[in-house]
Design goal:
TIM Barrel, eight-stranded mixed sheet
Amino acid sequence: MYPVDLHMHTVASTHAYSTLHDYIAEAKRKNIKLFAITDHGPDMTDAPHHWHFINMRVWPRMVDGIAILRGIEANIKNVAGDIDCTGMMLDEMDLVIAGFHEAVFAAQDQATNTQAVIAAMAQGNVHIISHPGNPRYPIDIPAVAAAAAKYQVALELNNSSLTHSRKGSEENCRQVAAAVRDAGGWLSLGSDAHVAFAMGEFEHCEAIIDAVQFPAERILNGSPRRLLNFLEQRGRPAIAEFAQL
């Protein structure tokens, strides 16, 4: 149903099991037209070195008609909203996802978590907040959704959170989707695949979308062009190789 997947990890994050080539093959099999590789930012314990992200410039933009975005799942580091993607790294990224991970930012109380995530959005470099429904990191969901709409940042429905990661996320994710709906913001769907076979799998996300009657036109994954327009409106340069998407 969705030709775009915006969150996945390769063997560069050593707790994942697939390569860029594996994802290209799976995208062809599943008719995915655009995807983003978003390995963990370098402050994560087993993440790639910052040069890994800078050197993404050597990747082709298109392979067999499939568009590839150079991305990162950065770590929110502190209550000021700083992330571990800066300088030359940030210059090379097409897509910046950011979220909480225990190895970098220990879970805090709701007020502190909310302050940190809103500050990360306010800094202006983050396009998507990953797995905001994680129950280990409680947030003020309506406040975060309102800030996300204000700063034009998408909140993610993470399919992995609804299957085998971050147990207990379902009700929070439903509240996130409803709050984003009411705030007029964007949803992003992420498989959070750590193996290529999970790419493009959004079954549990779709159940929540249906349950809250989320507007289809405000889901970034609806088409490659919708996602690219969103990034361009956020100030990222147009990618010439994607002009026909």
